[in-house]
Design a protein that fits this description.
Chain lengths: 255, 380
Amino acid sequence: MTRALEKYLRPGVKGTPFCPGCGHGILMNHILRAIDELKMDMKKMLFVSGIGCAAWIPSPHFDGDTLHTLHGRALAFATGAKLFNPDLCVMVISGDGDLSSIGGNHLIHAARRDLDLKVICANNMVYGMTGGQVASTTPKGARTATTGEGNPYRPFDLCKLVEAAGASYVARYAVTQPVALINAIKKALLHVGFSFIEALSPCPTQYGRRNRQDRAEDMIQELIRRCILEEESQGLTEEERAERIITGEFLSWQK
Amino acid sequence: MPVKWIKSPFPKGMHYFSGNEAAAEGAIAAGCRFYAGYPITPSSELMERMSVRLRAVGGVFIQMEDEIASISAVIGAAWAGAKAMTATSGPGFSLMQESIGYAAFTETPCVIVDVQRAGPCTGQATRVGSGDIMQAKWGSHGDYQVIALSPWSAQEMYDFTLRAFNLSERYRVPTMVMSEEAVGHLRENISIPAKVEVWNRKKEKAKAPFGTEEEGGVPPMPAFGEGEKLAVTGSTHDAYGYRKTDDGEAHARLVERINEKIEKNKKSVIATEDYFLEDSDEAVIAYGFTARASLYAVKGLRREGLKVGLLRLKTLWPFPEGAVAEVGKNVRRILIPEMNRGQVAGEVRKACSCDVISIGQTDGEVIQPEKIAEALKRVR
């Protein structure tokens, strides 16, 4: 966090609650930078989150209205608030487990309605707060607290999921792609309709240490190596492509 | 003033309504302008009417993807400033419990109409039951309070839903109308008055929205977008909404306060009615539709010269233990007919030392007056 952005933090908030090496602090910075660059009125911003590490990015830190809800239910709470007061700019910031597993049904239905909600899904591919259990986004083969032999199942492609469900703005970037991610958040803030940004964020504490990326910088390096743009993936073999993460803006469709 | 009299939005006079339709009109009269729900028998007519009525009065209606989403959207709308409600029945009521706990802990006013059917589980969707009474009080984890009312007619579906909003706004607590299929689907004349009494939540700028030193006090509740920069969380929080997840004192203070808030004000919440109790040596205690059958039975026995009376519970939670204990002091026996296996009978036993006899019925039918009369004669 740069000091210039501290004006967006609630008075009395000291430091972030995140583990050393967590990407969520970087994401917090990116979100506030987008808000700052667009000169958003924090009095009209409502930040809704569910349960998990990422849910603590806005709550209680952001100096607007914050609604820290139940596990999985952030989008349902946000739907009620936005429908009753359409003047609110409603941003939902939560984790992959919260939004796509326990809250998966709310995610596809919110996308289907194309309600004007700005969703930022901080995807660390694991249940961090509860000790590193496998998530619906954990890569196949990855070791977690509940898949010691490697995850036997495929992960969700969250961007394809919400696109198919009806979202009108969809993008994926890692916190290691700051300029592109901040620009995507700005686009989502200006977009009228359901916008979804999957923000890949490293979790060295729970994910990295079980997958030979013990140090925070190992995870950052790995994200930088794996995240490529769609066009960069053209010349790659199927095998090479499979272990990369395609990032970019996948859909931007204004009603 | 948080309370005022307003012109009824529906024309005054007599109207022929089902209980579910009447509840919808009571909600509109109370100022309900947000409804989120999911279809479930036997409550769906309430949602259908709300979809039409909210459009007419400029409110917001949405059919959500499930009951969890419905109650969650209701809470989100309530913090955006709405008087908001949902309606459901047993299975949906079960799904809503976690969010009801959230509403209690964050002191969010909201109304839930539970049109009870024969449970447990899917049970018999079209038939009557009254098995959710304990769930209304204890359905979510932890210690919290709710208010639950028990209507016995279409008229009271209107009156009690209106009152549920008023109590909910006044005490910032989830309030339930624990009706039953028999009342929800009952069609009868109801009288709509020219003016209705309506409470609105207290708003004060820059005051703690989650704390007050006043005994039994209710903190003010601003809405999102009013510049108050609210911090609302279902985690333990201090008076300004800051998370306090490892401070035992903060937790105890909050849990005690949300419980005391209702306990200290229960006199203004609890309503009961008594019939022929002055000289009775036996009493029936009943609620909901069963109270109607009980009154018929008691009147019949009185004509036969038996000294029996009826205490009718219009409020179920907080439990009217004072009124119940008073009856217990003056009679030899208390009979409690219920469309469950004695959920309220257990509460009566806690409050009374006389004989308490539970007449539970779980066949998906209403309890007939003859059954109550026979039971009263048998136990003499």
